[in-house]
Design a protein that fits this description.
The chain is built from five helices and no strands. It is an all-alpha fold and 131 residues long. Keywords: Signal. This is Cytochrome C.
């Protein structure tokens, strides 16, 4: 019986660690994308902005489903799944707006979309992480 309890605890630990790895990977991808976008704006490098936007888009995919979002939120924050969902939708919209504005060479509007993305990230982090 002890072996089963130990095995169950080990499986749960691995599952939680695996979930954290997925979350950390997603956040790292989005962070790299945001960094590339900012560097692109600072250095007039449209290719860097575009590749950064793709990274943000790819990293944000994890947060496109409420069930998935809830799975990764801390236990005491699961009731705030709508905050993370709204932030993910806002980020996705801002990535699209940024890309459209880049195509139109409306760089100030593209930079404003980046700023809104950053605000969406900060809003979600402030609530989920209790900043």
């Amino acid at each position: 019986m002890k072996f089963i309890n130990v095995l169950t605890a080990a499986v749960l630990t691995v599952s939680v660690a695996s979930a954290q790895d997925v979350m950390q990977k997603s956040m790292a991808i989005m962070e790299e994308g945001m960094t590339q976008i900012q560097k692109g704006f600072l250095n007039n490098n449209i290719d860097l902005i575009t590749s950064g936007a793709k990274l943000v888009h790819d990293g944000n995919k994890l947060f496109s489903d409420v069930k998935v979002i809830s799975q990764y939120l801390p236990e005491n924050k699961k009731h705030m799944v709508n905050v993370a969902e709204n932030a993910a939708k806002r980020i996705e919209l801002d990535v699209n707006v940024l890309e459209l504005n880049l195509e139109e060479k409306a760089y100030i509007n593209a930079a404003n979309a980046y700023s809104d993305m950053l605000n969406a990230c900060a809003r979600c982090h402030s609530i989920v992480r209790s900043w």
